[in-house]
Please model this.
Amino acid sequence: MAQSKKQKQLMNFVYGMGAAVVIIGALFKIQHISLDLGVFEISGGVMLTIGLVVEAFVFAISAFERVEEDLDWTKVYPELGADGVKSGKELGAQGLLSQKLDNLLQEANIDAGLMESVGTSMKNFQGAAEGVSVHLPPRPRRYGRARIRAHRRRAGDRALLAGLHSGRTAIND
Model:
């Protein structure tokens, strides 16, 4: 159904706007928001209903769209012939990617023994790292209990002195 570029753009717009209304409706529902427009009230339930009806309508229409044909990947990757992957002899000088990778690994002298050695070294390193433990000293308190008590005592003394100057004391109250 949606074959032209304009029709595809219209369908994408309707999909997006329908989804936006559903999301806003869910937000209204979760936050218990409602808009009173005088004539009627828009609540989260109403917005969710409108959004889901639009989405259902769009999905119903999209069920009748024509399926686009798949691209012919053998034009880009000739090794993907009609019978799957061709052999290296049929591909000529280029060869398969895996053959090229094998050649590069051979030129760099990277073989199974070297890879096994790397794996063993990594396991040894992991074991050594697990054996290391970090012992940090306890974090010093910024204010010790004695300092807090002294601060409270000074604050109490100041309050008492302020009361004496005003003629009020905690004893008289």
About this structure: The longest strand covers residues 34-36.
